[in-house]
Amino acid sequence: MANWVGLDSAGVEQLWDDTLLLGTLEVMAENQPFSSGDPYSPIYPDLIERFPDVTWSKGGAGTDFRPIFRRGNPLAKLGLIEGHSQQAYLSQFGQELISGETTLETIYQLTLRSFSERDGTRSFAKMCAAAIKLPQHAFTLVDVEFGVAEANDQLTDLVERLKLIRERNLRFPAGSRRDRVLRSFMNALVSSGALVNVEGGWILADPAVAVEIIASRSEIPEQMLDVGFHAVPVPASRNRGLSFPVVVVSPGARPIATIRSDAFAVIDSSQRSLLLERAHSEHERLIELAAASIRRSGGTPIEGTASFDVGCNDVASLLIEAKHVTDRNAVSQFRKAVAQLPEYRWRHRNLFGPETRQIVALSTDPRSMIEPDFMDFVETDRDIEIIWRDADRLVDKQGQDFQVERPHSE
After folding, report:
1. What CATH class has 13-102?
2. Is the terminal CB of the chain with fewer CB neighbours within 10 Å at N or C?
3. Does position 106 have pLDDT exceeding 90, yes or no?
4. What value does the mean pLDDT take over residues 2-18?
5. Do the Cβ atoms of 387 and 364 come closer than 8 Å?
6. What is the Cα–Cα distance from 200 to 140, expressed in whole angstroms?
7. CATH number of this structure's domain 282-395
8. What does the pLDDT look like over 248-261, one tens digit per residue?
9. What is the pTM of this model?
10. Backbone φ, ψ for residue 139 (5° rounding)
């Protein structure tokens, strides 16, 4: 059994409550340098006054004094204080949190990115990878203990393990120490913004945060980005000499993204951007719609697992880059597409030629977000077609359905 413990190895769940944690930090800030090991330390009267329902210590002076912090100090584990039990101070992070220069959510994110269990397992990262793989699944503590923690590094057996948990009706002893430790483990992910607690368990809240926790400590090779999930290799006759792998986009429910969970650390900025883009559900919806359009035309949709979003090179020759756009990012998203599409066409020149249509598929009509001249520049000067999602279809600016087999010259 993996026996994950996370940050709260002592099971002192109450100390990890956000309000109590911030209040404790404020008390310690007012009494620097402070001592958590001294029964006469001024922090204890202040803490008792502010949080009277917490048993801050047991025993009296001398060897019988047992402060609650001896079992585990959340402030130390989050890097908010430094020093030792007899003389400690707020760290730089602690000072920034008190002053409002940073947030507790950010502190949790930084901590979970670098955390490893005693055996070296990056448990928070693996849990995030599981949540991204099954974004609609509410993970229970039993799922975490016997499903995610015990699954292989690629999480390929996760669904089967979760199924067995249901069939065997496994349960966790409510109120047990193990229950408290794992509950605190999951709540740390809630505090980071990666997960949210709902009725029945914990589900993915912010895929961007989850991806950052997964990816921050290792370089993720492109072959570990199993974005296709249901993917099968492109026939060798159409996939020779490629430095970037290509797979068929198969019909069926696509996960938001699936990322091999043992490939963790610092990744370069361009690959992190790719991961974050693909972690967005709207981005995946655009890919589904584009792939469906190609299939309806009798073609085979393909995707570059570390490059282009959707392509076709049988009934038509086209490359599609999917972009989620808002008022704030529309221009920058267009600029990315203008740079990416020609590069992908060049990189995959064994699949696509100079006449391959370049298309950017947007999450919504962009005409209220950017100047008409800029759209004209993209279409005319850069030779990139613009389409967008309208409910469950992709349309052009005339409101007509996206045509896969339309000649490029039209």
Report:
1. mainly alpha
2. C
3. no
4. 74
5. no
6. 7
7. 3.40.1350.10
8. 666 654 443 333 33
9. 0.53
10. -80, 125
